[in-house]
Design goal:
The complex is a heterotrimer of chains A (262), B (263) and C (266). Chain B is an alpha/beta fold and 263 residues long. Chain B has nine helices and ten strands. Chain C is flat. The chains are: A mainly alpha (262), B alpha/beta (263), C mainly alpha (266).
């Protein structure tokens, strides 16, 4: 729209970068020369960078990231495998929608993290509990987004395929599945955030490894630069995943004239 | 001559939720000869699209007979193909992949169907667009893809449900002439539905007027204009007479409000 | 017989949906009566009736009220702050391209990351008093509100703005007459999302950094294997969430009547 033409994408990017660099510089300068830095309370970019380098070199960072990622991927994959078929089922069969929608809506709307302590007590502190919670949190965005996508499927296209002699399986693979791709990706974007919450909650609560545990441990031992470094690593991963999915969305749907939904 | 399509006493009633039953067709009779271009005209809701869908095999009549070449119709089949008013192109497929759809569903081998699809894309004049997506095409172009797709499976009967209604007037005129050219070349039996008297008169061999709901055949008019037809014919007094005849039969079905306004 | 089928047909949606939930509750209740559970699971198992009994006990013994009060305060103050900060900031960001471009990287980064990751930091800064929870609720609820307000403002039809400007309206008047009314549906969606995040913030904040509140009650009960109390807490949050979301959805449809149908974002 006219908005962006005032400011080309290039200019926007530039301003953004200037802003970020400016903030970092300001942060560093203020706490080096203006306000005395209380190491038990705050830290500054140079210290964070040093801590980050150290973690990288010593390999602790990778280890933690790997452990958390393993649980995340398992839980997330389960959510995809279970959530999408359920969403299709609900979207395609009206009776299934009537039966399952209220129940799932109630679950989706509740803070399922409240069950985290319970899951940990039941499954212990290892992988199973984490995966269970991540699954519970990540499955619903898929169910509901796929459900919405299937319901939005152009019935005309279903008729077209039928008119050329297509059967049930043709309808699923040639019409429904391509139709719901953008919805799946949108669901994935939301599910990622929720999945990360799952990781963090379980690792804060009762874990001995993983990036969430690292953040909380650094906090307990007042190692602020390390803590900030770990937080930033998580932030970068989250941003990469989310923005990556956004790009994937445009790539997978070259036929859409693009609508934004955050 | 044995009629290609024969409908006898077709009855179809819809029962939508939360509303009363709607009788779309009642005692509907029709005979269509092979290679003929026949148009159904009638007021809104008279059942003409419903009949096309029954013929296509997507709807089942409650009672009555419907046969193609003497055989009963039991669902979609390769001998019939439809061109839809809203185009119905799969937005995630290129033009080529869309035209191939019918062939793909029949299990035709990829190389063969690519070839066939390309032929048809050429027939409708879209060769330079075969790798484009529907959203990049204009309305007229999309409908040409729809036409190519319908012709790809080499049906005997081409069903066209107000195919040009969504196009602007100029494109519509163009498409009508192109359709006639393609029809002359491919010699299909065409069953065409429209609201436009002008379109019906210009395109068809015969025009069938349907009554208001519930739909039945009211009148059948033979269009005696020579073929091939061109745009100039629409400007002749003979053409106007034909239109007047059709209108006089149609206007009673449109209800007193419309008839008085001389639409 | 016909009246029965008619009755069913009219209420099919409610019957199937409600019936399914009732069925699940029933199954849950009767499982221990039907199967003898192995020792391990029996420790964690509870039934709906037990949960209701515990709830009753907690209310009668006046144990639950203080928890509810604390959680409620955290929720309301946190959400309130988020609204106070998020709405104006979203409005300004939406209207000022410069500010938008400068803040965008931060907003994107913070929006993609679950705000939960800052909890240890907030605990470090504010201890386990009520303010750390309020801050987590605030930070969680802020972003949906901010972003949705911002989107609402950005999506204003240029043509309408020009129309109003052509009548000589100032920036403030333009805001009032065109931008704000247009943004209201977006803001309400943001509010709905923010409420969910705020509740989440309360729950999780109280797990880790609290000596009071419903979340704390849940965590404590879990450690003591009092699963029925855990479910009391979960049920309360579930009920609250449903009630609030329902209210906001009603508000949403009331205020969005002028908009053409769009696909919902969850």
């Amino acid at each position: 729209m006219a908005f962006k033409s005032f400011f080309s994408d290039y200019q926007r990017l530039l301003l953004g970068m200037v802003s970020v660099i400016g903030v970092v510089l300001l942060w560093e300068l203020v706490f080096t020369y203006v306000i005395p830095l209380n190491p038990f309370f705050f830290t500054k970019p140079s210290l964070i960078a040093a801590a980050f380098k150290e973690q990288l070199v010593s390999g602790t960072l990778w280890k933690d990231v790997a452990i958390s990622s393993k649980a995340f991927l398992l839980g997330f994959s389960l959510a995809v495998i279970v959530g999408i078929p359920i969403g299709v089922f609900m979207g395609w069969r009206r009776r299934a929608e009537y039966t399952l929608d209220p129940f799932f809506t109630a679950l989706y709307a509740s803070p399922l993290v409240a069950l985290a302590p319970l899951l940990i007590i039941i499954f212990g502190v290892g992988l199973t509990g984490k995966v269970a919670l991540i699954f519970l949190l990540a499955v619903f965005p898929f169910i509901f987004n796929v459900f919405a996508g299937v319901k939005c499927t152009d019935r005309l296209l279903v008729n077209v395929v039928r008119s050329f002699g297509g059967r049930e399986k043709d309808i699923y693979f040639k019409v429904i599945l391509p139709s719901i791709m953008p919805y799946i990706v949108a669901g994935a974007r939301i599910a990622i955030g929720r999945g990360i919450v799952g990781i963090l909650v379980t690792e804060f609560y009762a874990a001995s490894e993983g990036i969430g545990f690292a953040i909380s441990r650094f906090g307990d031992t007042y190692r602020l630069p390390d803590m900030f470094a770990a937080i930033m690593v998580l932030m970068i991963m989250a941003v990469v995943l989310t923005e990556g999915l956004r790009k994937l969305e445009t790539f997978l749907t070259p036929w859409k004239t693009g609508q934004e939904a955050r | 001559m044995v009629p290609c399509i024969e409908a006898r006493s077709l009855n179809l009633t819809f029962t939508p939720k939360n509303r009363g039953p709607v009788t779309a067709l009642q005692g509907f009779d029709l005979q269509v000869s092979k290679g003929e271009f026949l148009t159904l005209v009638g007021p809104s809701g008279c059942g003409k699209s419903t009949f096309l869908n029954v013929l296509l095999g997507l709807l089942k009549p409650d009672s009555g007979e419907l046969s193609l070449n003497g055989k009963q119709i039991h669902g979609p089949g390769q001998e019939r193909a439809m061109v839809f008013q809203e185009f119905g192109l799969l937005p995630w497929r290129t033009v080529l992949a869309n035209v191939e759809l019918g062939l793909e569903l029949k299990g035709v081998a990829p190389l063969i169907r690519h070839e066939r699809a390309r032929e048809l894309i050429q027939l409708v004049g879209l060769e330079s667009f075969q790798n484009h997506y529907p959203h990049e095409l204009s309305g007229g172009m999309k409908q040409r893809v729809g036409l190519a797709r319908a012709l790809a499976t080499e049906p005997e009967v081409l069903l066209m449900d107000e195919p040009f209604a969504a196009l602007d007037a100029q494109t519509r005129d163009l498409m009508q002439t192109e359709l006639l050219q393609i029809w002359e070349r491919t010699k299909k039996t065409v069953l065409f539905v429209t609201h436009s008297i002008e379109e019906a008169a210009y395109l068809s061999d015969r025009v069938v007027i349907m009554t208001a709901r519930p739909g039945r055949t009211k009148n059948v008019f033979k269009i005696d204009l020579p073929r091939p037809r061109d745009y100039e014919m629409r400007l002749t007094p003979e053409f106007n007479d034909i239109k007047a005849t059709i209108w006089s039969s149609l206007k009673d079905e449109l209800g007193t409000k419309a008839a008085g306004n001389g639409i | 017989m016909n009246t029965l089928t008619n009755f069913y047909r009219e209420r099919e949606q409610a019957i199937l949906g409600g019936g399914f939930i009732l069925l699940l509750i029933l199954i849950w209740q009767t499982v221990p009566a039907l199967i003898s559970l192995p020792r391990g699971i029996a420790l964690f198992f509870t039934t709906p009736v037990e949960v209701i009994k515990s709830f009753y006990q907690l209310v009668v013994k006046n144990e639950i009220q203080s928890h509810v009060y604390v959680s409620a305060v955290e929720f309301i103050v946190g959400l309130g702050l988020a609204i106070l900060v998020g709405l104006p900031l979203g409005l300004v960001m939406g209207r000022s391209k410069i500010l938008d471009a400068m803040l965008d990287p931060f907003v994107t980064a913070f929006n993609a990351t679950p705000r939960l990751v800052f909890l240890p930091l907030l605990i470090l800064w504010m201890g386990i008093g009520i303010w750390s929870k309020i801050m987590i609720v605030f930070v969680g609820a802020l972003f949906p509100l901010l972003i949705n307000t911002y989107e609402g403002v950005k999506n204003v039809d240029r043509v309408l703005v020009n129309v109003v400007r052509s009548f000589g309206a100032s920036e403030w008047q333009t805001m009032k007459v065109v931008v704000l009314p247009n943004s209201v549906p977006y803001i309400v969606v943001g509010l709905r999302l923010a409420i969910g995040r705020a509740l989440l913030g309360v729950v999780v904040g109280e797990f880790f950094a609290s000596s009071r509140g419903l979340g704390f009650m849940i965590a404590g009960a879990a450690t003591n294997y009092k699963v029925d109390i855990v479910f009391v807490g979960v049920a309360i949050f579930m009920g609250l969430s449903l009630a609030l979301t329902h209210l906001v959805k009603r508000l949403e449809s009331r205020l969005s009547r002028w908009r053409p149908d769009e696909v919902k974002t969850y």
